[in-house]
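Hi all, posting the design record for the shared folder.

TITLE: backbone redesign
STEP: 1 of 1
STRUCTURE INPUT:
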């Protein structure tokens, strides 16, 4: 089991950058697949980016590819999402998620943070 706390959200203008962080508890953080999801008002949750337990492999949703970068620091038990060239459509609540197996991240066998609000104005 792991506990997750996100931070770094805020209000920015289109074209600006933000760096979100997710701090995890527990000594087994390094074995978890980690991912970022977001949810805009009135919309469902959508996958943003994911990173393997070692940090060697990453994946991105098409709508953020080339703009966002996910990374992790297992020594500090953190995962980050660097968001550049932000657009108003990036607005939403961003949450980090952890799962021991990648395929489990969207199932009940996963752990979630409380989320952090990102608002991008035009």
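Okay, here is what came back for every position:
SEQUENCE:
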């Amino acid at each position: 089991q792991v506990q997750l706390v996100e931070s770094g959200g805020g209000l920015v203008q289109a074209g600006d950058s933000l760096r979100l962080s997710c701090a995890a508890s527990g000594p087994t953080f390094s074995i978890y697949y980690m991912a970022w999801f977001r949810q805009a008002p009135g919309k469902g949750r959508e996958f943003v980016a994911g990173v393997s337990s070692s940090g060697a492999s990453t994946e991105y949703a098409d709508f953020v590819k080339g703009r966002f970068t996910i990374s992790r620091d297992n020594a500090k038990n953190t995962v980050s999402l660097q968001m550049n060239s932000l657009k108003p459509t990036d607005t939403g609540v961003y949450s980090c998620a952890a799962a021991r197996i990648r395929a489990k991240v969207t199932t009940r066998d996963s752990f979630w943070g409380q989320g952090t609000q990102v608002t991008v104005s035009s």
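COMMENT: The chain has a mean pLDDT of 96.
Let me know if anyone wants the other runs.
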